[in-house]
Amino acid sequence: MSASVKKPLNETTIKTIKATVPVLAEYGEAITTHFYKRLFEDHPELKNIFNQTHQRAGEQPRALANTVYAAAQHIDHLEVILPRVKQIAEKHVSLNVQPEHYPIVGEYLLIAIKEVLGDAATDDIIEAWGEAYGVIAQAFINVEENLYEETEKQAGGWTGFRDFKVIDKVEESEEITSFYLEPSDGGVLPIFKPGQYLTIKAKIPGGSYDHLRQYSLSDAPGKNYFRISVKRESGTGNHPDGIVSTWLHNHVNKGTYLPVSAPAGDFYLDDHTERPLVLISGGVGLTPLMSMWKYVQQAQPEREVHYIHAARNGNVHGLKQELKNTEHCTSHVVYEQPSEEDVHEGLFEKEGYIDLEWLKKIAPYDADFYFCGPEGFMKAVYHSLIEWEVPNDRIHYEFFGPQGDLQI
């Protein structure tokens, strides 16, 4: 898809869609929640694609509502949301979403609008949204078609799912375990971009549908294996125990075969610049940044790099043995609640949290900043960088799960 989006909608349709923006602001999440409910009732096979944990927690309906709202706001200039389209398209390709899925989604989205809004959803509004959805869906289909083609054509690339064998399983901390994966067909692996992820298809015995989960690649590209490092997710509040992470930790061992989709994702290191690099991670958010950290030391050994990692303590800090300093690369560890052993062995540099005053002391302002971790952690880092007046084009981050909003 080109950098611009054509505007085949007429002015009446555009005006009608724009008029629904305030309604979507108020009822958008109710519409998307109802949409998923109706969709899964009539098409339970789609549970094999959508993350049901995110559904139950309300994260996926909220993310879809935000996307629909943005599309309505910019229906006359859809190129504004093209970066978001590309981001979602990367996820769709990793899940093997196909063009034939879009008409089904469109049908149930219109049903949800009508059933939630009632008489307020006039025939004109439904017709306008039907036309608008067609344009938006085609934008996704075009981008995804290009991504599928690029993925399949690269050396070692593939589309759909390819079987991989677990050749090693390493406990990195009390919570994080690494899985080393090798293609069962003996073929070569594509060179992924440091920061990208794989999608694992978990066929859990007794389950009524497959579970698809994305896990960041935690090693540098160019190896004869892929490595993912997975945190066992313990349930809190509205979030139950992680179905797939628990299964991986408890039941997947050396010799297990897993269906895997090709590396994907638009959060990756820009290695076409020599600017200083600052990597900031919290908890298991270290996985994509560890890939960047290891890659840049190989590919750009002269580049100045600072890695800052925050964890509760050393017991849950995975991959810490790989944070080795070199002449140009330095690591900094922050523990919120360090243990006596952490204190005795001097395993951390700062107790508590990352704050702007401390960040200014160890990180160069003119750097590119990449960060990943829990949403609260990411909001704190983002607001610190904004307060420091770091330009937006030097701030890069990734959510684990549906896209959130760091500006609130």
From TrEMBL:
The record marks Y36 as: Involved in heme-bound ligand stabilization and O-O bond activation. Keywords: Detoxification, FAD, Flavoprotein, Heme, Iron, Metal-binding, NAD, NADP, Oxidoreductase, Oxygen transport, Transport. SUPFAM superfamilies: Ferredoxin reductase-like, C-terminal NADP-linked domain, Globin-like, Riboflavin synthase domain-like. Heme b binds at H92. Residues 8-145 form the Globin domain. Residues 156-408 are annotated as: Reductase. Gene3D superfamilies: Globins (1.10.490.10), Nucleotide-binding domain of ferredoxin-NADP reductase (FNR) module (3.40.50.80), Translation factors (2.40.30.10). NADP(+) binds at G283, V284, G285, L286, T287, P288. GO terms for molecular function: FAD binding; heme binding; metal ion binding; nitric oxide dioxygenase NAD(P)H activity; oxygen binding; oxygen carrier activity. Its EC number is 1.14.12.17. Pfam families: FAD_binding_6 (PF00970), Globin (PF00042), NAD_binding_1 (PF00175). It catalyses: 2 nitric oxide + NADH + 2 O2 = 2 nitrate + NAD(+) + H(+); 2 nitric oxide + NADPH + 2 O2 = 2 nitrate + NADP(+) + H(+). Its cofactor is heme b; FAD. InterPro entries: Cbr1-like_FAD-bd_dom, FAD-bd_FR_type, Flavoprot_Pyr_Nucl_cyt_Rdtase, FNR_nucleotide-bd, Globin, Globin-like_sf, Globin/Proto, Hmp. Binds 1 heme b (iron(II)-protoporphyrin IX) group per subunit. Binds 1 FAD per subunit. Residues 159-270 form the FAD-binding FR-type domain. One of its GO terms (biological process) is nitric oxide catabolic process. FAD binds at Y197, R213, Q214, Y215, S216, F399, F400, G401, P402. PANTHER family: FLAVOHEMOPROTEIN. Is involved in NO detoxification in an aerobic process, termed nitric oxide dioxygenase (NOD) reaction that utilizes O(2) and NAD(P)H to convert NO to nitrate, which protects the bacterium from various noxious nitrogen compounds. Therefore, plays a central role in the inducible response to nitrosative stress. In the C-terminal section; belongs to the flavoprotein pyridine nucleotide cytochrome reductase family. Belongs to the globin family. Two-domain flavohemoproteins subfamily. This is Flavohemoprotein. It comes from Halobacillus litoralis.
